[in-house]
Structure formats: structure tokens, C-alpha cells
Known about the structure:
Elements: H1 7-16, E1 21-23, H2 24-33, E2 43-51, E3 54-62, E4 72-77, E5 80-84, E6 94-100, H3 113-121, E7 126-132, E8 137-142, E9 149-157, E10 163-166, E11 189-191, H4 199-202, E12 214-217, E13 220-227, E14 238-243, E15 253-257, E16 260-272, H5 276-282, E17 290-295, E18 301-306, H6 307-310, E19 318-319, H7 331-335, E20 341-342, E21 346-347, H8 357-361, E22 369-370, E23 375-378, E24 381-388, H9 392-407
Parallel strand pairs: 1-2, 10-17, 11-24
Antiparallel strand pairs: 2-16, 3-6, 3-9, 4-5, 4-7, 5-6, 7-8, 9-14, 10-11, 12-13, 12-16, 13-14, 15-16, 17-18, 19-22, 20-21, 23-24
Amino acid sequence: MGKTRTLAEIKEKIKKGTAVVMTAQELVDAVASNPVAFDDVDVVTTATKGLMSGILGVFTFRVSPPKVHRKFVELSMNGIPGFPGPCPNEFLGVVDVLLYGTALSKDDDHYSGGVMFRELVEGKSIHVVTRSNLGAEIEMDITLEDMQYARMLGTRQGFKNYNAMVNPTAEPVNTIFSALPMRPHSAELTFSGCGAMNIFQNDPEYLTLGVGSPLLVNGGKGYLVGPGTRNYYLKPNMMAIADFKGMKPEYMGGFKTSYGVEPICSLAAPIPVLNERVFNNLIKSDNEIQLAVLNVVGREKVADITYGDVWGGNFEVKFDPTKCDDCHECPGELYCPTRAFHKRRGIDRARCYNCGLCAITCTAAPQAFDIDMKEVMIDGRGVPVVLRQSDRHGAIKLATELKTRILEGEFSLEAPTAPLDFAKEVK
């Protein structure tokens, strides 16, 4: 195993101000230009910002005075159906509710639970409609601060990278893996995963991560609960929980695909460099991380590439409105999955996902954009990348925020309470 250090030793160095903490991006950049050894870094912060379907809100709040209603059996928040219970809270006037991040409003199919979660964190008022077991209907407006309990739970989050998608069929396909109908005959490629920034990619043997490991979830303090659903050892994911109070809107929200609105969620985790085995996992670049290309319809593999083929050092979409021609209908404004693009005002950085769709769909003024969306070779043919479904720029920002919190003593490294136990296969 070679050289080692303990978590207690690292924490003491942080306390004294002598610890070296780097983001995963800083580390792989440093390795690319200079020799970096185990002794040169104590903690590496990892992160991912992606579309995570399996998130839900767990809320508790009062809807009536006690002793008036026995229990509540139906509830919606801004038109999105939730699930009251399982606790009846009999005669208390209080409701527990679960609301899925993928659930859509009955009034607006562009408005999802993920969008509502962001609005809660932004401090916006949410309209609640609930019905009792005897049919009494109550309407009220509520904010996050009014809630007794508000947590985000992820059933499966932070996959150890993901996949790229093409459509080799003869017809366009509406899919959650593309913001527009995916063109046929493998004419384009979309992909997910933050590559060398990814949490489990940097600790693939779970040498430091485990049950109870502290995390940042959308910028707020959270914890790794354990393995997520449909995980296995080659493709691990986690279940995490965090308080909505303390999250930051820029790391969350909704992303409109051609088959619905997917929730955006961001996770960051510290990896203490306890030994050289941990260190050797951390220094792998995007070029060393495989990315499978799948048929979006049947999910069978059609090719293997790497994250180096789709990511470069160009992670942020840049746009100059002064170079924009006065086209009648702007594709960027029309198709932006997060409604962040404005041809006159520029890009709303608090909402931008850096997916690249604005640059891809613009034909009138491509000179207004600065982004390299890449082209990959599949079966000897160049296939353009048309959508990034993970935000590497956002992940780096969250990892940098975690690094700062660690160095300033605002985020404490803690050993897990139990190891992670991943299945050997998916059934």
C-alpha cells in the first residue's frame, strides 16, 4: 500500500492551516503538467452536477388548526401532486408529504417537482391545495421557512459516470437523453457524466466513502445514506439526504428534455488521501475513463469512447450578445432546457447548465458563441456532440466551494459509520 496517513492527521493539518486541499480538476490538471506525488495533497474534493431523476422532497407542515380534520388524503403543491402520509397525523392538522422531482404540474407540463424545489430554495411562495378524508378542501400559500421539516432524498444519485447516446434507428426519438428529438442514423450524440470530477470515479473501491459520509447536496450539508437503487459494483450510485434549508438555487432546478422535465441536482464529496491506493485512483484523467455509447432505444452498447473525447478544458458556454444577429426567432431562447439563454441580455449564469444547445441550434450567428462541443469517431465516422447532460463547470464550482469550506473549518471530514455494500449485478 506504500505511504499512509490517518484521517486524524489530515484533520489536524486542516486545523493548523497546513493541509493541501485540491479539487479533482486541479489535481488532474496539475498531474498533466508536473509530477504530483502522494505527499503533495491531503484532500481532494469531487463533485457532479447532473440530471438525477430519483430525487424527492419530504415535507412536514401545518395546514389547519388541531382537532378540525382527522387526516388529509390528497395534496398538491403548485399543481404538482404529492403523496400525503404515510403517517396519518390524526387530528393534528399537520401533513407529511412526499413529492417526486419528476412529477409534473397538472396545469403546466413544463413545471416539475425539480423546478418547484428550486423555487422553494429561492424563497418563493408555493400554493398548496389539500383535501381531508371527509372532502374538506384547504388552500394556502407556504414558504420553505414555514415548514417544520423539508429534506431532499435521492433514491439513486451520483452514478459512477454514465453513458453517451446515439439513435441508430431510422426515425427521430423523443427521449430524456436529448433536449430535442434525437436525430436518426446516429447523426448526433449526447452524453452524461462529469468524468474525472465524479465522486465514485475518484473512489471506485469505496476506500473513503461510506454510510454517513458528509456531502454537499446542492450546496447544503447532507449525508450519504447508502447505495442507491439499481446500483452494482461496476456502476455504483448513492442514496443521499439533505436539508432544503441551506441549499443554493444555482445547483438545482429542472432541465426540459424531449420527453419530460428532469430534475437537476449537484453533489460534492471530499476524498481524504489516506494512502497511495486512494491517490492512484484520484489522478486518472478523462482520457483514462471509459464512456460507453448506447443505442438510446434498446440501450445496447454500440461503441466505447472516453470522457476525454467529449470533455476538453472548455466547460463553460460563453456568449457575446453584441455579436448576435437580429434573427426573427432565436433557437437559443426557444429551446434552452433551463430557460437561461436570452439573445439580448445574454446568459443567466445562475440558471445556465452549460449544455451547449444554444450554440448547437444557432445558425444565424455562430460567431457569438465560444464553446467546443467536440466530435467523436464512431465506426470511422465523425458524430457531433449536440448536448451535454452534465454540467462540468457547475461541478467544478461546487467542488471549489467544498474546498473553501474545508480549509475555513466550515465542513468537517468524518469517517463513515459503515462500509458501502454494492450488489454484484443488477437484476
